[in-house]
Amino acid sequence: MGARVTYPSVEAMLEPMELAGLLGRPVDSVSLAPMTTLGFSSTEADFQEVFADGEATPAAVLKIVQWSRDWHAIATEDTRGREVAIWECGVLDRLPPAMGHAVRGAARFTDGAALLMDDLTRHFLPAEVRVTPQRARGVLRAMAAMHATFWEDPPTGDLGASICPLERLLTRISATMLTSLGGVLPDIELVANLPEGWDRLTSVVDPGVARDLRALADDPAPVVTALDGYPTTLLHGDLRSANVAWDGTRAIAIDWQPTVAPPAYDLVYYVANSGGLLHPDEAMATYREMLAAELGPAASWSWWDDQLDICVAAVTAMMANAWALGEEGYDPRRDLPWDSIHWWVARAERGLRLIGAA
């Protein structure tokens, strides 16, 4: 399918006749109700449930974002809506069957945009529930299929300026970025405590390591340099359990931050942020096998270990402040070893050396 047309306003998109076309069903009347969400998305967007003809269950979900008050958009220099752009240009229609998307329609307006999406609420896990091995493997398989689809041929021409530079993803919760955002940051515990994590880091890990991690988070240019020359593909950019639903047969991703980089970034970021029961190294090995099956026997793998270790170090640096905050509640009698920042710092040592030598 080719490029899609966006609406000039939310009201135009939600006209009954238009909504009927987007949903593929008759609609005579439309109503909205506020929707409560959890996680980063709840800090940067207005979510509404969309009801058709007075039905008890939502027909869709509406997400409205204003760039001027969206801290994530400001941090990643998103001025035209990457989530909308990746749908507009038809890239989401090229996803493999194992990886779906939720977008039905979109609207653009001054200083913002809106997405009409399927209601996936029942397919997301509550924040306190761990990802099961079966679900994790399903997402890993979908990730591998998506990466293989765009292997060494990412749609940079289609997405153009809507590609998110990897360094913008890596700096979005750095100490320097959080300071510069100042009053734009929402006053909720999830985000408001992130600056404190950088202050606490030196008391959690070796001060020298803490200094190196903070420097790399503030300036990830050495990561980008170290990854130069490795195979690239289209990445989701923010793939974590809060942004990927599982309907039992396929993964359905939301909140796209499309970037082009080696595949290990999506992989490591997902493993590090999804509270899975799979050991991270086991999950990474499983993904590698799945990607190899997708690419075929002719693919060379001499590059794999180095880019994986570099991405482990990069994600560890990016997440160090959040993990430092979580270390206070870590209990080795209850929690898994990789729930601790110490596990990730140890795992990142080789990658940090590779980055330093780049």
| Spatial extent as radius of gyration | 20 Å
Return the CATH architecture of the largest domain. Answer: Alpha-Beta Complex
Helix and strand string, N-terminal first?
A: HHEEEHHEEEHHHHHHHHEEEEHHHHH
Q: What is the strand arrangement across the widest sheet?
A: 1-2-3-6-5
Helix and strand topology:
Blueprint: H1 10-13, H2 16-23, E1 30-34, E2 46-52, E3 60-66, H3 71-75, H4 82-88, E4 99-101, E5 103-109, E6 112-117, H5 133-149, H6 156-159, H7 166-170, H8 175-181, H9 189-192, H10 194-204, H11 207-218, H12 221-227, E7 233-235, E8 244-246, E9 251-253, E10 259-261, H13 264-273, H14 280-295, H15 304-327, H16 341-347, H17 349-357
Parallel strand pairs: 4-9
Antiparallel strand pairs: 1-2, 2-3, 3-6, 5-6, 7-10, 8-9
Describe what you observe in this structure:
This protein has 358 residues and is an alpha+beta fold. The protein has two domains: 10-121, Phosphorylase Kinase, domain 1, CATH 3.30.200.20; 125-357, Aminoglycoside 3'-phosphotransferase, Chain: A, domain 2, CATH 3.90.1200. The chain has helices spanning 10-13, 16-23, 71-75, 82-88, 133-149, 156-159, 166-170, 175-181, 189-192, 194-204, 207-218, 221-227, 264-273, 280-295, 304-327, 341-347, 349-357, and strands at 30-34, 46-52, 60-66, 99-101, 103-109, 112-117, 233-235, 244-246, 251-253, 259-261. The strands form three sheets. It has a five-stranded antiparallel β-sheet, sandwiched between helices. A hairpin with a 7-residue loop joins β2 (46-52) and β3. α12 (221-227) packs across α17 (349-357), α13 runs antiparallel to α14 and α15 (304-327) packs antiparallel against α16. The protein is globular and about 60 Å long. The mean pLDDT is 91.
